[in-house]
């Protein structure tokens, strides 16, 4: 086993653990703001997990999928934050 494969395996395990913690916070969060923050962190963890799969397999498809996850996650975070501030999303 090479150093890169060991490092990628460790990173994937830690990112998966972080995603599980985010899911727990989304389920258990006392306030809506906590749930939105957990969702934001969850999509970042998911995006980084997809990127590590792309590094492991040397496929560009994973990098494109991570870009789509990042764009959709940003838009959803902005929409949820706007909803929490004003109570409406569409003006």
Write a compact overview of the structure shown.
The chain is mainly alpha-helical.
Would you kindly provide a written description of the structure presented here, covering whatever features stand out?
- This protein has 91 residues and is mainly α.
- The protein has one domain: Helix Hairpins, CATH 1.10.287.
- Helices cover 87% and strands 0% of the residues.
- It has helices at 3-28, 32-57, 60-86.
- The protein is flat.
- It starts with a helix and ends in a 5-residue tail after the last helix.
- The model has no long low-confidence stretch (mean pLDDT 90).
Give a quick set of tags describing it.
91 residues; mainly alpha; Helix Hairpins; 87% helix
